[in-house]
Write a structure and sequence with these properties.
The protein has about 240 residues and is an alpha/beta fold. The strands form four sheets. It has a five-stranded parallel sheet, sandwiched between helices. The relative contact order is 0.10.
Length: about 240
């Protein structure tokens, strides 16, 4: 069984690696110092299990678990943390187990035994848990380069086009398979609806103007192209812009 160990403290990682090395039939295939590194490493090494801390810089373990659960073959997740107040959130992102530090060898062995019995398909198909209500700090997209993580605060807009959503950000754009409605629910305080097919980041709005054709369009900081504002959203957008 292939294991990825993720903890921002080197000593904690070293201890988990030693514990895993002492368990027969299990090997550590990668280490990571935060959630972002764990998500990217998982795409390279395809672990069966991720041992994950929760409180980490850049991306915490709960958000990393959310991204990992969206991959084609999600690994089993076992949280190893010093804080027990995150247990409910951990199981909302379908964690297999939740171990408190210092993790004992017996507890880790028992958790890995449970993971060995659960296939990746069973883990990904388990809808019995409560849906996660955690808000992501990144959007994950599968591209020809693998999994890309786009910081939410770098996104200019979400634009729906049939089945997929175009995510326009500072470095270009990616496609994701989500719904505009779900994105609006999750990020409604950061983005505003300007059209039935578009959500725009409030922090990048420069102004709204009327085009020669008669419709309104929105200018965004750092972008040459504009977005069409539907007639039904003009008044509401004006009110939002007055508060910016």
């Amino acid at each position: 069984m292939r294991v990825l160990v993720c903890d921002d403290e080197q000593l904690a990682r070293d201890r988990l690696v030693r514990l895993v090395d002492g368990i027969e039939g299990v090997e550590v295939v990668a280490e990571a110092a935060n959630g972002r590194e764990a998500v990217l490493a998982a795409q390279r090494v395809h672990p069966d299990v991720v041992l994950m801390d929760i409180r980490m810089p850049d991306m915490d373990g709960l958000e990393a678990a959310e991204h990992l659960s969206r991959t084609e073959q999600p690994p089993a997740l076992i949280f190893c943390t010093a804080y027990d107040e995150h247990a409910l959130d951990a199981f909302r992102v379908r964690a297999l187990d939740y171990l408190l530090k210092p993790v004992s060898r017996d507890d880790l062995d028992a958790a890995l035994t449970r993971a060995r019995k659960m296939t990746r398909v069973q883990a990904s198909d388990d809808d019995s848990g409560e849906k996660s209500t955690l808000r992501r700090q990144h959007i994950s997209a599968r591209t020809h380069r693998g999994l890309e993580l786009v910081p939410v605060n770098d996104i200019r807009y979400f634009l729906a086009d049939q089945k997929y959503i175009t995510v326009r950000h500072g470095g270009g754009e990616v496609l994701i398979d989500e719904t505009l409605k779900d994105l609006e629910t999750e990020f409604g305080d950061l983005f505003v609806r300007v059209h039935r097919n578009a959500l725009v980041a409030l922090s990048f709005i420069e102004g709204m103007e009327q085009a020669p054709a008669g419709h309104h369009q929105l200018r965004l900081r750092g972008l040459e192209d504009t977005l069409v504002v539907s007639r039904r959203h003009v008044a509401g957008l004006r009110k939002v812009m007055q508060r910016l």
